[in-house]
Amino acid sequence: MGRHLLLTGASGQLGRWLAPELAAGGHALRLSDIMPFPDPLPAGASFVSADLADGAAVTGLAEGIDTILHFGGISVERPWPEIVGPNIVGTTHIFEAARKTGARVIFASSNHTIGFYPRGQRIDTDAPYRPDGYYGLSKAYGELLGRMMFDKHGVESVHLRIGSALPAPGEARHLATWLSLPDLLRALLAAIDAPRTCFAVVWGASANRDGWWQGGDGPRLGYHPQDDAARFAPLPEPGEAEARRWQGGSFAALGKDHDPA
User: Fold this and answer.
1) Of 117, 135, 141, 223, which residue is the catalytic one?
2) 141 and 90 in contact (C-beta within 8 Å)?
3) Into how many domains does the chain fold?
4) Among candidates 18, 30, 23, which has minimal Cα distance to 184?
5) What CA–CA distance (Å, rounded) separates 186 from 178?
6) SS3 annotation, the chain
7) How far apart are CA 193 and CA 1, in angstroms?
8) pLDDT tens digit string along 150-162?
């Protein structure tokens, strides 16, 4: 039976790919973004323009919704004043709307919450946060917000720490971080269909032979990735030495002037 879904950030690259896939699954889909949706609307979908910084607008978006797939906000490293509105205030509005309406939140988190771990070090979802910039910090905030919202208000949420969601990996780092688009859809459908999620953190990565991440709540929710970046190896290793040192890649190297060792 189809659910009533809200997809924020629908006009972005991932949102545009996900919208028709989700609609094809029989879900009633409400799309939203600050920018117009550039493609024909999928069958049964509607589009509502909204600014995540507008709390009343976000509350209205969530009315009648079972699950919010929150992909909206800034998706790259930017100065703090550009991050705080969409990614901090906007994400808070999303969770407040979910609290009021009883919706589940699926939050597009990021590997940049832990970007300052060295490459090759295998970590679990309970490893301490090591964000590699203001973008990663905003995603760590979203995860902590979800934790608090469940503990205090019972708001269910799934936090998908997306690695490199691409049609195909393009560089050596992606051999560990790649999330194929079919695996992204599998993760989201598992999070939507799970009878109960409580608070969950899931690695947004495919079943990569050379991956750095282990554990997490994916199996508990029924998410079992099927693809592996290894079939694309070998791949080039671009970027400066500092970018090649950290799991966060170029995000970690950007503006860096200290060695955390």
Assistant:
1) 135
2) no
3) 1
4) 18
5) 14
6) CCCEEEEECCCCHHHHHHHHHHHHCCCEEEEEECCCCCCCCCCCEEEEECCCCCHHHHHHHCCCCCEEEECCCCCCCCCHHHHHHHHHHHHHHHHHHHHHHCCEEEEEEEHHHHCCCECCCCECCCCCCCCCCHHHHHHHHHHHHHHHHHHHHCCCEEEEEECEECCCCCCCCHHHHEECHHHHHHHHHHHHHCCCCCEEEEEECCCCCCCCECCCCHHHHCCCCCCCHHHHCCCCCCCCHHHHHECCCHHHHCCCCCCCC
7) 10
8) 999 999 999 999 9
**β pairing state of 164-165 and 67-70:** unpaired
Q: Is residue 260 domain-resident? A: no
Which residues in the chain show pLDDT less than 70?
1, 261
The domain in which residue 230 lies consists of 4-253
In the sheet that 199-204 helps form, which strands lie side by side, from edge to edge? 45-49, 28-33, 4-8, 67-70, 104-110, 157-162, 199-204
d(CA 219, CA 147): 19
Asked if residue 259 is part of any domain, the answer here is no
The 10 Å Cβ neighbour count of residue 67 is 23
Residue 151 lies in a domain: yes
Instruction: Please check whether residue 175 lies inside any domain of the structure.
Output: yes
177-219 pLDDT, tens digit each: 999 999 999 999 999 999 999 999 999 999 999 999 999 999 9
Distance CA 161, CA 84 (A): 19
Q: Which residues make beta-bridge pairs with 46?
A: 30
Here the CATH number for the domain that contains residue 145 is 3.40.50.720
* 141 counts as catalytic: no
Cα 68 from chain centre: 12
